[in-house]
Amino acid sequence: MNGGYCNAFAPACYIVSHAHEQAAMENANDTLRIDKWLWAARFYKTRALASEAVSGGKVHVNDQRARPSRPLRVGDTLLINRGEVEFTVVVEALSGRRGPALEARALYRETEESLAQRERAASERRLRPGPAPAPQGRPNKRDRRLLLRMRGR
């Protein structure tokens, strides 16, 4: 540590350098890559998927398109589009560690409008009719004639 200067006072020197390292870590923790945060907050299963979503324009930070390496800060607003589901969240904390779901949930706060919109979309999806049943193999002669009649041939 300091070229042997602290050898006689190693514990004191360690405390000083450790406090200095802690301060540097706190400053480094003020920001975090957006792809890493999305992975840690469990919006995406892998960092590669999170990075791909950000690159593809599925994630906006403060109403601006972002790159995966964009630094994210506490208080930023994210618009995350995952297929039919759209989240609007405010970053509450930063973490580069992917922990349990309860810890991940503490990293953000979803806006009231976003919650209401997702609930509305979910109820609409429940009311929507399901896909048509798949045909059971090849049509027989009768079914084939019905199909031809429907097509107008």
Model description:
Helix content is 44%, strand content 16%. The protein has 153 residues and is α+β, with helices and mostly antiparallel strands. It has a domain at 32-124: Structural Genomics Hypothetical 15.5 Kd Protein In mrcA-pckA Intergenic Region, Chain A (Roll). The strands form 2 sheets. The chain has a 5-stranded antiparallel sheet with strand order 3-2-5-6-7. The chain has a two-stranded antiparallel sheet with strand order 1-4. A hairpin with a 2-residue loop joins strand 2 (59-61) and strand 3. Helix 2 crosses helix 3. Mean pLDDT is 84; it is low at 13-26.
Question: How would you concisely characterize the structure shown here?
Answer:
Helices cover 44% and strands 16% of the residues. With 153 residues, the protein is of the alpha+beta class.
Which key terms come to mind for this protein?
alpha+beta; Structural Genomics Hypothetical 15.5 Kd Protein In mrcA-pckA Intergenic Region, Chain A; two-stranded antiparallel sheet
Range of helix content: 40-55%
- Low-confidence segments: 13-26
Radius of gyration: 27 Å
Largest sheet: 5 strands, antiparallel
Instruction: Output the helix-strand order.
Output: HEHHEEEEEHEHH
Strands of the widest sheet, in order across it, are: 3-2-5-6-7
In CATH terms, what is the architecture of the domain at 32-124?
Answer: Roll
